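Pasting as-is:
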Amino acid sequence: MRDEEIALGFETTRGGTRGNRSPRGPLLNWANKMTIKRIRKNSSSEMLVLTTIGRKSGAVRETPLRWFPGGDGSWLIVASANGAVTNPAWYYNLAAQPDVPVDVQGRKVDVTATQLAGDERTAAWKQITAAAGRFAGYQEKTDRELPILRLTPRA
């Protein structure tokens, strides 16, 4: 079964035909661990730690990500993978299980992920690229539409 077909939580965006290689390897793993420690110590960070469960492995996965204000206390994240040809693994993990915890702004919050589409996605994309222009560069590297997800706190 293809990754795009396994989504239970929301309609997933297909991978592309061109783009960078997905970042991976021991150096990235080490850098992510250091970034996660920094995020958890700094309550004013523009980064969050997304915790997902591997849809194939069942292993707990932690990913540091840049967030943007989503309105009503929610956060927006982008499945950019630096403009890779495929969506990042955490995106498919989140599609399979959209109710997850995040560490953000010095606290742990249980959230539900939903993918933005249409006018809502367009408005969010303008906000994101205005705040962090590198995301527009990631989009130029690939022909897949970079998914934007809203993380909404659960009651």
